[in-house]
Amino acid sequence: MVFAGGERIEFSASVIHYPYGEIIGMAKLYFKYGAMGSSKSAQALITKFNYEERDMSVWLIKPSIDDRDGADLIRSRIGLEARARVITPEEDIAEAYHAAGRHDVIIADEAQFFTPEQIDQLRTLVDEEELPVLCFGLRTDFLTHFFPGARRLMELAASLTEIKTVCDCGCKATVNARIDENGRIITEGDQVLLGGNDRYVAMCHRCWKRRIREQRI
Ligand SMILES: [Zn+2]
Fold first, then answer.
1. Is 189 part of any domain?
2. Contact, 72 vs 86, CB < 8 A?
3. How far is the CA of 18 from the centre of ligand 1 (A)?
4. Annotated catalytic sites, by residue?
């Protein structure tokens, strides 16, 4: 697994790169996207830790649509966890931020589930409050189409970083395949499935297509 931020350690006036997670001083909208299992939540939490270690306050947020780990918990597979402010689809994030009080940075997990309007609100916070806003999330759904929030992030983010992970074949995984309880790849259904028993496996596009073909035989 390759972590964004890389093996390189650089120091400059505005940006410090750590091997895992990073401190970013520039007021920009960042989108750090990757497939399922690419350690996005872990990186979000490590980044939060890095800021707090420097006495900087972090406003940690997540959309309410994702409730796998309880309403307000961000939990990574390697055991890190933290409580976040949960944002409902109807909420104005800028208003919620002002109500929460001044912070040095905003970190968002599962950012693909914000509405496009909410991504615009985050962009406004970057511009008007001169805040770095770091969004971690998926780019595409189980049928390879953009999540609306991810599309808006692609349009508005000043910095795009792909957090890479690999398919079983060794190629880069880009597809978040939805798998049923029998291990078959599901190719129809709603973009967001709540409460189902299905799970997701990151794989390369070629393996995804091959497995769908083989299922039809
Ligand atoms: Zn593959």
1. no
2. yes
3. 30
4. 110
* Residue 175 Cα to ligand 1 middle (Å): 10
Distance CA 163, CA 178 (A): 20
**Total domains present in the chain:** 1
Say yes or no to pLDDT of 4 above 50: no
Mean pLDDT for the stretch of residues 196-211:
89
What pLDDT, on the 0 to 100 scale, is given for residue 127? 95
Give the CATH number for residue 111.
3.40.50.300
The upper half-sphere exposure of residue 99, i.e. CA atoms within 13 Å in the direction of its Cβ, equals 8
How remote is the CA of residue 167 from the centroid of ligand 1, in Å?
A: 5
CB-based contacts of 176, cutoff 8 Å, min separation 6:
35, 36, 138, 140, 141, 142, 200, 201, 202
* Alpha-carbon span 60 to 48, nearest angstrom: 8
Q: Domain of 142?
A: 2-164
Q: Write down the pTM of the prediction.
A: 0.87
